[in-house]
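Weekly structure sync, notes
Attendees: PL (lead), two postdocs, one rotation student
Agenda item 3: pending single-chain targets
PL asked that the sequence for the first pending target be pasted directly into the notes so everyone works from the same version. It is reproduced below exactly as submitted, 93 residues in total.
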Amino acid sequence: MKQINVAAGTAQIKLGAGKVWGILGVSAGTSYTFQLKDGPDANGNVQIIYGQSAAVPVVAGVQYMNPLEPLTFRDGLQITVAGTPGDIELQYD
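Predicted structure, written out during the meeting:
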């Protein structure tokens, strides 16, 4: 589990394969949004695995996914955020 509170940009959370079991909005910030990405692969590419059509706004107290249906990633886990930081809790392995 990791609580994310980063300035706008991309942060590498983990390298290698794994699963995201939960995403919880802790604090909304101002216009704080996020996307989760799988990557980078050997060529430096990433693939969006959560927030495909648009970045997701952070709302305090919202559980963004069903822990019985985890997201899988192969190459690594990245988060891209925008806006004034709030807090997001990621549960992953």
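Discussion points:
- The CA atoms of residues 11 and 86 lie 15 Å apart.
- The first strand starts at residue 2 and ends at 4.
Action: rotation student to compare against the earlier draft before next sync.
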